[in-house]
Amino acid sequence: MRVRNKPWAMDKLQSYPQYVLSSPEQYKGKWNEVFVKNQPLHIEIGTGKGRFITGMAKANPHINYIGIELNENVIVTALDLLIEENLPNLRLMNVNANDLGDIFEKGEVDQVYLNFSDPWPKTRHAKRRLTYKSFLKVYEGILKDRGEIHFKTDNQGLFEYSLMSFSEYGLLLKYVSLDLHNSDFEGNIMTEYEEKFSSKGSRIYRCEVQYR
Ligand code: SAM
Question: Pfam families, alphabetically (predicted)?
Fold first, then answer.
């Protein structure tokens, strides 16, 4: 999907440092000091316009959340949501998932969400998929022991690839749904892409996997 260039986006992100954490490396090992309450930390990687992470933070005040997104033109919309909601348990970071090992100590993150990650269908681009083994290593380096990844997508090819990638990495497949919206899963919070694709009739795939 094409994203409109917003030349003002970076300035806006920088003018809300209480919501969009700049130089997040400074908090490495000290993430429990960033939020009002010291409680579990869940992160969403590729958070887009922020609908999911804002909904999760509203629904679960006993969990801290960070929405991570590399595209400033998109995360600026998540910032608008956060300004409106002013949630004490949600922060945003405009960084690349590749760099998360410089930002979190091992064990500082309790759970990772990946929602509708870019599929990168060409084999030569497989390394860019957020479920490629090098990313699984990055997540392992920041998650607590037995930490989990929760993954949703409408893309069957990416889902099949990701199940293989998780399995080859040695992750435990705890839950797999091949049709989330017609399953008994409760409390689903939709993302922007999920709303768009499911309203056009696409099936939504979801899994939960755990490091051993
Ligand atoms: N999760 C949102 C949703 O479901 O509506 C957005 C999905 S969009 C297809 C994928 C997002 O992941 C894009 O906004 C993209 O910029 C972001 N992204 C891709 N690779 C990333 C990376 N390495 N680090 C951070 N964000 C990334």
Answer: Methyltransf_4 (PF02390)
Question: Which atom from ligand 1 is nearest to the alpha carbon of 152?
Answer: 4
Strands 41-45 and 64-68 come out as: parallel
Position 2 pLDDT exceeds 90: no
Nearest 10 degrees: CA dihedral of 52, 42, 22, 120?
Answer: -60
Cα separation of 122 and 197, whole Å?
21
Distance set, CA 122 to CA 11, 125, 129, 152, 155 (Å): 35, 5, 10, 20, 14
Alpha-carbon distance of 201 to 60, in angstroms, equals 29
pLDDT digits (tens, 9 = 90+) for 184-200: 999 999 999 999 999 99
Q: Which amino acid is at 181?
A: H
The domain limits of the chain are 44-210
Residue 85 annotated as lining a ligand binding site: no
**Most distant CA atoms of the chain, gap in Å:** 44
What ipTM did this prediction achieve?
0.99
Q: CATH for 44-210?
A: 3.40.50.150
Statement: the pTM of the whole predicted model exceeds 0.80: yes
> Does 108 show up as a binding residue in the annotation?
no
